[in-house]
Amino acid sequence: MPELPEVETVRRGLNDLVLNKQISSVDVYYDKMIIGDVQKFKDTLAGKVIETVDRRGKYLLLRFSGDVTVISHLRMEGKYYVKSKDEPLDKHTHVVFNFVDGTTLRYNDTRKFGRMELVKTGMEVNNSGIKKLGPEPTVDTFKVDDFYQALQKKKKVIKTALLDQTIVTGLGNIYVDEVLWMSKIHPQTPAKNLSYDEAKKLHDNIIKELNMAIEAGGTTIRSYTDAFRNEGGFQFSLKVYQKTGEPCQRCQTPIERIVVGQRGTHFCPKCQILKP
Ligand SMILES: [Zn+2]
């Protein structure tokens, strides 16, 4: 599943490839992919120009002329490709934005879980998924004091609390395991038991890790590829995720795998002690 660094990589790719292109028409081959009226989706976008592509959490926000935004969530396997209109359609292509210049932006999704929704620009904040998102993991928006206070109010263990996106957005299963290892925090530690110093260390590592992953173009596990079909390079920097049995890079203890909140979880049993 693409996490924030992968979605950010897609956003940057789209900004390089489709900016200022004008849509001639839109083809939808799987109606359920569009939330709301499919005909209205097609009719509204015809003639519009892509002005920029933004992102909030793992939601891509394709901004069009006329104050129109398409909220696009890739879910498990969604991918965008830019191709000439003459290239044959892949059987997993479900939405095609045709541009007047003869190129197309194609949305592929082998599992069909991705969704697109057309809204008036600015109204994306009312989207049920976007509405509950915590701050973006940047120095400007993500503050230690707020983070610590939010953890104090959580009844969940830290791994689950970080995955729910309300305290800080953008951490999925891979990066949660990584930042907890970096911060020497056991994934089953109750969130409210973290000290201020632990919360600060975790906060700093979340910003550092996600930015490093973005710079590396994301992580390729299974099928993720960005809009250029390049593979992300961050899988080579992972310390614990899917490293079960391999030595911890700090203390050489074999990495263990447990299940936390139904998610496979990797940690070092020596560096990340569960305090009583
Ligand atoms: Zn260790």
Commentary on this structure:
This protein has 276 residues and is an alpha+beta fold. It has two domains: 4-129, Alpha-Beta Barrel (N-terminal domain of MutM-like DNA repair proteins); 144-267, Helicase, Ruva Protein, domain 3, CATH 1.10.8.50. 26% of the residues lie in helices and 22% in strands. It is built from seven helices and eleven strands. The strands form three sheets. It has a five-stranded mixed β-sheet, with helices on one face. Strands 1-7-8-6 form a four-stranded antiparallel β-sheet, covered by helices on one side. The longest helix has 20 residues, at 196-215. It starts with a helix and ends in a 9-residue tail after the last strand. The protein binds zinc ion.
The CATH superfamily title of the largest domain: MutM-like, N-terminal
What percent of residues adopt helix (DSSP H or I)?
Answer: 25-40%
Top-tier CATH class of the largest domain: Alpha Beta
Our count of helices gives 7
Can you tell me the number of structural domains? 2
What gap, in angstroms, lies between the N and C termini? 34 Å
Q: Let me know the number of strands.
A: 11
What does the overall shape look like?
elongated
Order of adjacent strands in the largest pleated sheet: 2-9-5-4-3
Q: How does the major sheet shape up? A: 5 strands, mixed
Order of helices and strands: HEEHEEEEEEEHHHHHEE
Radius of gyration: 20 Å
- Alpha-beta content class: alpha+beta
- CATH fold group of the largest domain: N-terminal domain of MutM-like DNA repair proteins
Bound molecules: zinc ion
What is the percentage of strand-forming residues? 15-25%
Please give the CATH architecture of the largest domain. Answer: Alpha-Beta Barrel
* Average pLDDT level: 91
Residue windows where pLDDT falls under 50 for at least 5 positions:
none
Domain Formamidopyrimidine-DNA glycosylase catalytic: 2-114
Organism: Ligilactobacillus hayakitensis DSM 18933 = JCM 14209
GO molecular function, one term: zinc ion binding
Keywords: DNA damage, DNA repair, DNA-binding, Glycosidase, Hydrolase, Lyase, Metal-binding, Multifunctional enzyme, Zinc, Zinc-finger
